[in-house]
Amino acid sequence: MPNLVYFEPKALEYPLGEKLFKKFKKENIEIRYTTSHNQVRNLPGENDLQKYRIAKSTLVVGVRKSLKFDTSKPSAEYAIPFATGCMGHCHYCYLQTTMGSKPYVRTYVNVDEILATAQQYIDERAPEITRFEASCTSDVVGIDHLTHSLKQAIEFFGQSDYGRLRFVTKFHHIDHLLDAKHNGKTRFRFSMNNAYVIKHFEPGTSSLKYRIEAAKKVAQAGYPLGFIIAPLYLHQGWENGYQQLFEHLAKELPVETKNGVTFELIQHRFTKPAKRVIEKNYPNTQLELNEEKRRYKWGKYGIGKYIYQKEEETKLQKTITSFIEEYFPNGSIEYFT
Ligand code: SF4
User: Fold this and answer.
1) How far apart are the first and last CA of the chain?
2) What's the half-sphere exposure (Cβ side, CA atoms, 13 Å) at 25?
3) Closest ligand 1 atom to 96 CA
4) pLDDT at position 48
5) Ligand 1 pocket test target in 56, 90, 202, 210 with most atoms within 8 Å of CB
6) Peptide bond just before 127 cis, omega within 30 deg
7) Chain segment 299-318, per-residue pLDDT in tens
8) Angle at which helices 272-281 and 48-56 pack, to 10 degrees?
């Protein structure tokens, strides 16, 4: 639940905007108005760190103007935008650099228009399947208990012949999605890590225990299930930590689900700009960000990333793959990067 909410005036012209307005009024949450999210200034807080924290618990309710979807490789063809920003505090979050000085959470109330645009993209490629990723700019599940936009999208794709939806979350607040008519067209993924990594680097998100309980419920609701294990992080005892994670998952999940489960594997990486932002926002982080220990990989727009050394990368990939083969022999690995 946000501590402070901004409304863009146009948002109140949509039923979802109106619904959210009434809800926040009833909950006595401070409401302010803004002509555009870019005008969200003067957030309370005495210094940058406080402002950053307050922004993370501030919600801007607005209208998505640009209905041109970005591409979203390797997990889908397009990114579908329902929200941007996230209330979580993962030290290595990819949003740290992309959201820059505007780390507040935004939700878009013109969901029907966003879905109508998705339909146009689907029609262009039909009869090829078109996949949409809903987690490129946010952990949308974190606010969906308020908006139910994701639920609406799941039911929209449930009726679609050639469209598929996927998203990933670190939150366990998924009960309202369990009865959505998904018809197997949405892949519900959880971002998982071992207990050490979650404890040290993912404040403000759901615990491993809660995520696993939520994944079990999602499996029982018949959704295609997946796990993104990211970032794969080398620390003392990492092999043991990851083995326990897979053991725990395999024990909790229903047998029939384990057969179709997908895994996406992403090793820890950082860019120089990201390192600067992480050290500013989380000055006491124990995250290892030493360029000299890493291998440099050229990236888009000249901003390269630091990934693990080749031997470490190979060991990481082999070890995690062997755990998946052992505990999920009928699961599949979509990619390792
Ligand atoms: Fe970022 Fe995901 Fe953590 Fe939110 S839950 S802060 S989107 S990594």
Assistant:
1) 34
2) 7
3) 1
4) 85
5) 90
6) yes
7) 877 789 999 999 999 999 99
8) 100
